[in-house]
Amino acid sequence: MTEMLNTLAGRLTIAMIAARMTQVELASQCGVKPPSVSGWLSGKSKFMRGENLLFAAKALGVSPLWLATGQGPRTPNEEDQAMYALMATPTASEWPFDRITPEQYFELSKSDRDYLEGIVSNEIKSTLANKKRAIPPSKLAS
After folding, report:
1. For residue range 26-48, what is the model confidence (pLDDT) as tens digits?
2. How many CA atoms within 13 Å lie on the side-chain side of 102?
3. Which residue in 10, 82, 123, 141 has the most C-beta neighbors within 10 A?
4. 21 by DSSP, 3-state: which?
5. pTM to 2 decimals?
6. Are 90 and 52 in contact (CB under 8 A)?
7. Could you give the dihedral angle defined by the CA atoms of residues 110, 111, 114 and 118, in that order, rounded to the nearest 10 degrees?
8. CA nearest 25: which of 59, 76, 58, 62?
9. What's the distance, CA 51 to chain centroid?
């Protein structure tokens, strides 16, 4: 068991067993798709960071420090609990993109994400404006 604590995959496995949580359930709690969790558990991913780490730790009821590094107590402290209380839980069904994963998006810098958000926002506004200007099919028939 001590060897399992040396890897992210091992710590995730231990925490998932203790929480009686499946890969699909963890994926849903983290707002990612099941293959992402599979990558974490297979050892393909050597570490987690950012929101994925925090949402996984919250869902599993463990300390993010312990999950990420194996250091410190496994149970979350008061600060962790307070942070978890403020976090909204995402779901994979809320993710709007099929060709971009949340992991890819959150690997970008904040300024890159802001830039992309501006582009997407402008495209959505333009698309909606064009739809409003389009002639409804019922008017074409007359």
Report:
1. 998 888 888 999 999 998 888 88
2. 25
3. 10
4. coil
5. 0.60
6. no
7. -160
8. 59
9. 6
